[in-house]
Amino acid sequence: PVTAVQTIPAQTVGLFGGTLDSSSCDKAQLVAYLAANPDKAAVWAQALGISPSQIASYVAPLTPVLLRSDTAVTNHGFEKGKLTTFPSVLQAGTAVLVNQYGQPVVKCNCGNPLTPPPVTMKKVKYKGPTWPGFTPGAMTIVSASTTVINNFTLTNVVNNTTFVRPAGTDGTADSAEGSTPAPEVPVSPDPVQPEPVVPVPGPIYTEPEPIYTEPSTEYGREGQAIALVQDSYRTCAAAQGDT
Would you tell me how many other CB atoms lie within 10 Å of the CB of residue 73? Predict the structure, then answer.
């Protein structure tokens, strides 16, 4: 059962982290790769509701940050020329690009587009590796700001102080002026309990859609190896189908 969904406004100080004067994401490489692979660019753009010609202008204002809590999203991949969609929980420490409203829209280590998680989650099952501190049924949902965020106040993961990163910059414009001790990872005072799923006509599924757990690769080669094995497994499983 989903027991504690923490819905935190994107502008909350302490929700995101980073390293002063450094970025964990390469926007130029992402744009160049998609430009060189038009089939993947078409699917990537489809997931985010834009056209392939808009990719460069869409990526330009995005801001690189690190998640500071296990965060629910909807992840999107590319298999056999088509878009794949699956709910995921991203581990704290995962590098993402957020839009001007603070919504995670790209997972940096693989370039996958991200969208908000399912609106209702009553019961879930998990597939994929977990990590120390992972708690089934508990996750953070980033609530997009209603206004444009011009400056993100991030937690410096090196010394646990705050710094400011102007939106759309890659770390070269970071400012630690007026830095203060960073707050703890924010916790919603009133966890949002999932709403009951309203039955609708259609197929009856015996199991809920699995939520894939996505470990961060920020913690070294072990995390990267896990991600590579997981990606290979999914590719193989997709090819095998129901076999």
Answer: 29
Neighbours of 76 (CB within 10 A): 20
CA 146/CA 15 separation, integer angstroms: 16
At position 54, the amino acid (one-letter code) is Q
CA distance 2 to 137: 4
State the DSSP code for 184.
P
Read off the pLDDT of residues 4-48 as tens digits, 9 standing for 90 and up. 889 999 999 999 999 999 999 999 999 999 999 999 999 999 999
- With residue 30 as reference, give the H or E element that holds it: helix 27-36
CB atoms within 10 A of CB 226: 19
Phi, psi (5° rounding) for residue 233? -60, -45
The amino acid at residue 180 is T
The most distant pair of C-alpha atoms in the chain lies apart, rounded to whole Å, by: 59
Residue 207 burial by CB count (10 A; 0-12/13-18/19+): exposed, middle or buried? Answer: exposed
Q: How many CB atoms lie within 10 A of CB 227?
A: 18
